[in-house]
Design goal:
With about 425 residues, this protein is of the alpha+beta class. It folds into two domains: about 20-170 and about 230-320, BirA Bifunctional Protein, domain 2 (2-Layer Sandwich); about 330-420, Anticodon-binding domain (Rossmann fold, 3-Layer(aba) Sandwich), CATH 3.40.50.800. Helix content is about 40%, strand content about 20%. The chain has 15 helices and 16 strands. An eight-stranded mixed beta sheet has the order 1-5-6-11-10-9-7-8. The protein has a five-stranded mixed beta sheet with strand order 13-12-14-15-16, with helices on both faces. A hairpin with a 5-residue loop joins β15 (about 395-400) and β16. α1 (about 20-35) packs antiparallel against α5 (about 140-155). The longest helix has 18 residues, at about 20-35. The chain is elongated and about 95 Å long. About 35% of the residues are buried. The structure holds adenosine-5'-triphosphate and magnesium ion. Magnesium ion (MG) binds near residues 60 and 261.
């Protein structure tokens, strides 16, 4: 039979690597606890319309990247979630969280997203995003808090040299004012722009500024900046966000061309980047979405959030040579010198496990020497050896692998002794 292969752009996260994921996930969850963000788990698929409305018809995600799923017995148009914010806001509206006494509502998610993209390093078709959303406050301090949460994760994991790029894309009105002037400029160079940008001019001209094509970048170098068209309110908000970031000691650079891929952003937009990560340098993206809750049928509530992927975070850790302090070894291997000791060993392992000790024994009838080799391979901190005479006296030899120190101990007492020596 022919082998069946893993789908393109996906990966198996194997034992030995998954421990890194656990470590990062635990760190993310602990940061959210400290920042008072609470987990929300929404479905992996939602109605297609949610993303059309919530992400925006003119985005890459909706135009090219969605996985639409269907079942012949159902007429529902469903899509595997390509991002987290739309589902969170859908749920916020559906569960009437705007009525919650705790405002703003601060939530986070951690789970897989699906996008049909060209796979490459740090770019997958299924990837895991960690994201946070704060809905219900326009306070610029919360913009800074959200950026700080993402930055803290990277810092506490040991990444250095990250930079925050910051912009304000204004309100819808600000953008309408800017748009007129931007269109004048873009129409002047229309013929020389890439085909994608030519169509963006009519649908979402701001996104031409975000094109990665070098010719487009040069042609739009002197295009009018959105920052010149901010209303007093948007400008004041932007200044306040910058001031709060400075108070937290978070360095940033203003990039007036950074507009982010999603349609629903208002005012603050930001990305966290790492120099030299290769083709993909953006680790995290986020921003304010003051129009989104209303767009999805709720009250007019402001919101802000970020999303980052664990895959790109791992890539960054690898590039910077950061080793996470994950332990892979077990605590104790129980070896037997005679088959008669098997049931005593089996019982002991069970009692060790009950006492919180990660314990293992041989299941392949290995000889003593091979059992000790297995203990080594499992990086056991302790080995317990039960021989014939020990079995008779109800004891075993406890060996600490690092020091070679040995001690005969009663079988009954072993779980407590090992648990306490593990601290
Ligand atoms: P890009 O410009 O790299 O395509 P994006 O604007 O589509 O990014 P967002 O939708 O803002 O990305 O997602 C936030 C973060 O999620 C990105 O900064 C990146 O770290 C990560 N990310 C996005 N797409 C992928 C993917 N296909 N595989 C892995 N990580 C991804
Ligand atoms: Mg993308």
């Amino acid at each position: 039979m022919a082998k069946i292969q893993i789908p393109r752009g996906t990966q198996d996260i194997m034992p030995g690597t998954v421990e890194l994921w656990h470590y990062i996930e635990a760190k993310a969850r602990d940061l959210c606890r400290r920042f008072n963000y609470h987990e929300i788990r929404t479905p992996l698929f939602e109605s297609t319309e949610l993303f059309q409305r919530g992400v925006g018809e003119t985005t890459d995600i909706v135009e090219k990247e969605m996985y639409n799923v269907s079942n012949p017995r159902s007429e529902d148009a469903l899509t595997l979630r390509p991002e987290g914010t739309a589902g969170v806001v859908r749920s916020y509206v559906e569960n009437k969280l705007y009525g919650s006494p705790n405002q703003p509502v601060k939530m986070y998610y951690l789970g897989p997203m699906f996008r049909h993209e060209r796979p490459q390093a740090g770019r997958y078709r299924q990837f895991v995003q960690f994201g946070a959303e704060a809905i219900g406050s326009s306070d610029p301090a919360i913009d800074a808090e959200v950026i700080a949460l993402a930055m803290r994760l990277y810092q506490e994991l040991g990444l250095t040299g990250l930079s925050v790029e910051l912009n304000s894309v204004g309100t819808l009105e600000d953008r309408a004012n800017h748009r007129k002037h931007l269109l004048e400029h873009l129409n002047g160079v229309r013929d020389q722009l890439c085909p994608d940008c030519q169509s963006r001019i009519d649908r979402n001209p701001l996104r031409v500024l975000d094109c990665k094509n070098e010719t487009c970048k040069t042609l739009t170098k002197d295009a009018p900046s959105i920052l010149e068209y901010l209303s007093d309110e948007s400008a004041a908000h932007f200044e306040a966000v910058k001031a709060y970031l400075t108070e937290l000691g978070i360095a940033y650079t203003v990039n007036p061309r950074m507009v982010r891929g999603l349609d629903y952003y208002t005012q603050t937009a930001f990305e966290i980047k790492m120099a030299e990560i290769g083709a993909v340098e953006t680790l995290c993206g986020g921003g304010r979405y003051n129009g989104l809750v209303a767009e999805l049928g709720g009250d007019d509530m402001p919101g802000i959030g970020f999303a980052l992927s664990i895959e790109r975070l791992l890539l960054a850790l690898e590039k910077q040579g950061v080793q996470l302090p994950v332990s892979v070894g077990i605590d104790c291997f129980v070896a037997i010198q005679t088959p008669d000791a098997k049931s005593a060993a089996f019982r002991l392992v069970d009692r060790l496990r009950s006492a919180g000790v990660a314990a293992e024994l041989d299941y392949l009838d290995r000889k003593m020497k091979a059992q000790l080799k297995q203990a080594d391979r499992l990086a056991a901190r302790f080995t317990v050896i039960i021989g014939e005479s020990e079995l008779a006296s109800g004891t075993a030899v406890l060996k600490e692998m690092a020091t070679g120190e040995q001690q005969e101990i009663k079988l009954d007492e072993l779980p407590a002794v090992i648990a306490s020596r593990l601290g």
